[in-house]
Amino acid sequence: MQLIGKTTNIDFMGRRRPAVAISLLLAIGSIVALVSNGLAFGIDFTGGVLVEVGYEQDANLSDVRSKLEAGGFDDAIVQHFGTAQDVLIRLMPVENMDGNQVREEILAALGVPREQLRRVEFVGPQVGQELAETGALAMLVAIIMILIYVALRFQWKFAVGAVVALVHDVVLTLGFFAVLQLDFDLSVLAAVLAVIGYSLNDTIVVFDRIRENMLSVRGGEPVDIMNTSINQMLARTLITGITTLLVLIALFFLGGETIRPFSIALIVGVIVGTYSSIYAASATALGLNVTVQDLLPPEKSDEEIDDLP
Question: What domains does the chain contain, in order, with CATH numbers?
Answer without folding.
Answer: 13-40+127-295 (1.20.1640.10), 48-123 (3.30.70.3400)
